[in-house]
Structure formats: structure tokens, C-alpha cells
DNA sequence: ACCTGAACACCGTTCAAGT
DNA sequence: ACCTGAACACCGTTCAAGT
């Protein structure tokens, strides 16, 4: 970790008049925050393969190697960008007793956060879990516990929900990136309709009510989790 | 696509005696099959980042650019390697009426196939769907249909199961790769136990009965799907 | 039909050096 | 404390050429 929050911005109001044309062009000093924010911009614009230390430095108006003062390496940039995008802004304490509604809300928010940055979903499973991710897990865990899910089952429930949300979001994000590919795939499928009659007929690959499918499937999963608890 | 199946191997028996020492050292000619098989070896050994056109050519004893005669580009190699690893060897026709058992078996086999090649799971969602993948989807779809799942619900069911299996397998594969990281993560978590008391207490990150967790979660999901069908 | 080496435009990161 | 350029050991792929 490096020092954060230089006080640079605080005197901006004073000398605004003295360097009116030049000042806005000169870059603020490098900082962890600026690097991470710019990395997110770059990832949003160009995808995972588009993030390059050189390009990142370019956008920041600095030399490449300057980044390494604030950041360990490229992996580190990924970890930081990912966690920064997963900050949870919802209520940190669950007051209502509608545990199911709370869980659905948390998971839909999670999915939405990741879809706002389509590179994030596929990155998440292989990166270290940052504080924002842990907070989400903590809140989910707490909600399930308070709802009366047995201690022995909480972990299974969390992992099941995690798996479902990750799978759904990763799938959604990657199918979304390539509309042409999807059309091409369905065409190929239609050409081979004798080999894959069922999925050709159900138009599996053309189904694009992603939100609805996500919600319904999550409903099934929660039905299963809830039913199990009710039975004992 | 390039030509396949050169007849090279058929005359091997005849001249085995004439070049006994040299022959086994000389490489067989390049072919799509050899390239794909070697790519899988390389991926198994070195992971996704370890697959390099140059390294692949090295292993094959050829020049780098020779690969490009048989294969479009690196993306193509990924697609082919992935699909080759997902061939389904189980029965192609479902005879038993235990649809739930069949579905569980197909999905556990799918998971096992991917875990045998840990790079495959994280690759699958963003790659084109090859014939072996489509076959698995077709069979799954057929089984759900025969089991009486309404046409309107089959796609939701398939995607839910797909999402769950992908999420579970990707998570498992990536957590497995970094045992040190997992220990470090739990340590960091313990240090921060006031901030994340619930997941620290449940030892979420240390739970490593992956198979059992997968099976239980899948059970919950199928409970949900089955219950819904029984109700209408 | 199949294979090749040179060359191009890139990468991430080390290192020794600047202020 | 913070930033830098040169250099190293890599990449994927184009191209013109060989057999």
C-alpha cells in the first residue's frame, strides 16, 4: 500500500485565475485512486485484453514505470479495479423480515453492478477477494443466518447462490459482447438441426430475456433452499 | 478447416525395421488433431497464460508459422482445445425414467470433465460453442423435455443449471489453483474478524468439501425446478 | 499442399538513474 | 518520495518465400 489522498485539490480554488488556460491541461499527480479509476475506464472501453500498463500510463499522462510506484504489478491493478467496482451501496443492515426479498435484492444488485462493467464478472472468480466483495458476502451470510438457516447449511447456501450468480452473469456478459457470433451460432445450429433438434426447436441460443431468466432461476434455487429449511 | 487424417500411420508397420533408431525421434506431420492434443497438454501443464503459439510450435517440433496452415489463429486453438475436452462419453439416449438421476449424472460428469482440465471452465463461457458442448446441451434439453418440463420452462431450466454448473466449476477451479492464496485470505479475514464476523465464524473460505457442496446445491436447485413442475 | 524465417508492432517488468 | 528511459525477454501475426 502507498500513501493516499494528497491534499493537492484543496488549493485549486485559489490559483484558478492565475493559470486559467494551462492548468486544466496539466495532470493531477499520480495516485492509487487515479490509477484504479482510469483502469476501470480503460477496461470499460476496451475489455480485459485492452488493459495494458502502457496504455494505462498513456491515459494518465505518465511514464509506464511510474505506475509501479503506486501499484505492485498488473495483477494488482486487476484486483483493485475489480473490488472498486463492486462496492455495495445498499443498506448494510437488514431490518425487514422478508429475508427472501432481501436476498433477491442483494443478488440482483450484485449482478447489475457486474453487468455495468462486463469485464468484472469473468475476472471475479480468479482474483483475490477485496473488502467490498467480502462485505457483500458478510451481509448475505448475516441475512441467511438471521432468517434461521442452520449454521451447517449457510455455507452451502452462500456458495450455491454465489455459483448461480457468477455463472449467470459471466454467461450473460460474454454472450452480450458478441451479437454477431450469437447470430452466427444460431445459423450454424439451424444448419445442423438434425443433430440438435431439441435446442434448435427451443431456440435456446436466441432466448435473450436475460433478466427474466435470471430471476426465475434464482426463484427456483431459493424455493429449494427455503423448502429444505421449512422441512426440518 | 483443413484436411484431416493423413494416411501416414498406416504404413508404419512396414518400415519399422528399416529406421529403428531414428524414426521414433522424427515428428509425425502436423495436423489439426496433433495441434489440438498438444495444446491441451500445454494448457494442462501451464494454464491459460502458458499457451503460446511459440511454445506450442516448440512442443510440436515445427516452426511457429506452420501452425497457421492448420489453424486460423490463437482463438481458434482455444475453441478447439476446449471442445475436445468436453466430449461426452455417457449414453446418448436416456432410457431410465429417473430424470432427476440422469440430470445429476450428466451435470456431475460435465463438472468432472472440466475439473480434469482446470483451464476449461473459465474459458467456456466466452468461447464459441463447439459440437461436443452442443451435444451436451441437446441431451440435457431432451431429458428435461421428456421428463415433462413445459416447453416454456425448458430454457429457463437449462440456463439455470448451466449457470450453476459453470459458476461452481469456475469457482472451484480457481480456488484450487492457489492454496497459498486461500490460506492468506483466511488469515487476512481472521485479522479483520470484527468487520466480517459472520463469514469468519462460518469459515466460508476454508470450506473445501467442493463435491459435497456442489451436490447439495444442485439438489436445492432441482428441488425448486421439480416442485414447480409438480404444482401445475 | 505444406512449411519457414525475418520483420513488425506490440507486451510486462528489472534496473540503474534522475529529482 | 516520486518519477523516468533504456533494455530484456517475451508476445501474435503478416508477408514474401521456399519445397
TrEMBL record, chains A, B:
Compositionally biased intervals (Basic residues): 1-12
GO molecular function, a single term: transcription cis-regulatory region binding
Keyword DNA-binding: yes
DNA-binding region as annotated in the record: 52-71
Gene3D superfamilies given in the database record: Tetracycline Repressor, domain 2
Alphabetized Pfam families for the sequence: TetR_C_1, TetR_N
Chain ranges of the HTH tetR-type domain: 29-89
UniProt superkingdom: Bacteria
The entry's keywords: DNA-binding, Repressor, Transcription, Transcription regulation
GO BP, one annotated term: response to antibiotic
Keyword Transcription among UniProt keywords: yes
Region described as Disordered: 1-31
Role this protein plays: TetR is the repressor of the tetracycline resistance element; its N-terminal region forms a helix-turn-helix structure and binds DNA. Binding of tetracycline to TetR reduces the repressor affinity for the tetracycline resistance gene (tetA) promoter operator sites.
Name of this chain's protein: Putative TetR family transcriptional regulator
Amino acid at each position: 500500500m502507498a500513501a493516499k489522498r494528497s491534499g493537492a485539490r484543496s488549493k485549486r480554488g485559489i490559483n484558478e485565475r492565475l493559470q486559467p488556460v494551462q492548468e486544466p491541461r496539466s495532470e493531477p499527480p499520480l495516485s492509487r485512486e487515479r490509477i484504479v479509476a482510469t483502469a476501470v475506464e480503460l477496461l470499460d472501453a476496451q475489455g480485459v485484453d485492452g488493459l495494458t500498463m502502457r496504455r494505462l500510463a498513456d491515459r494518465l499522462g505518465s511514464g509506464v514505470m511510474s505506475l509501479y510506484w503506486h501499484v505492485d504489478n498488473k495483477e494488482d491493478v486487476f484486483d483493485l479495479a475489480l473490488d472498486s467496482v463492486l462496492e455495495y451501496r445498499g443498506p448494510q443492515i437488514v431490518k425487514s423480515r422478508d429475508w427472501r426479498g432481501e436476498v433477491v435484492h442483494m443478488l440482483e444488485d450484485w449482478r447489475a453492478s457486474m453487468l455495468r462493467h462486463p469485464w468484472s464478472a469473468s475476472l471475479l472468480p480468479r482474483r483475490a477477494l477485496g473488502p467490498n466483495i467480502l462485505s457483500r458476502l458478510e451481509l448475505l451470510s448475516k441475512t441467511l443466518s438471521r432468517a434461521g438457516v442452520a449454521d451447517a447449511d449457510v455455507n452451502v447456501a452462500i456458495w450455491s447462490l454465489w455459483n448461480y450468480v457468477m455463472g449467470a452473469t459471466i454467461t450473460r456478459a460474454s454472450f452480450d459482447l458478441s451479437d454477431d457470433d450469437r447470430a452466427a451460432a444460431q445459423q450454424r445450429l439451424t444448419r445442423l438441426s438434425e443433430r440438435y433438434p431439441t435446442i434448435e426447436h427451443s431456440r435456446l441460443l436466441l432466448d435473450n430475456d436475460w433478466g427474466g431468466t435470471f430471476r426465475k432461476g434464482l426463484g427456483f434455487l431459493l424455493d429449494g433452499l427455503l423448502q429444505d429449511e421449512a422441512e426440518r
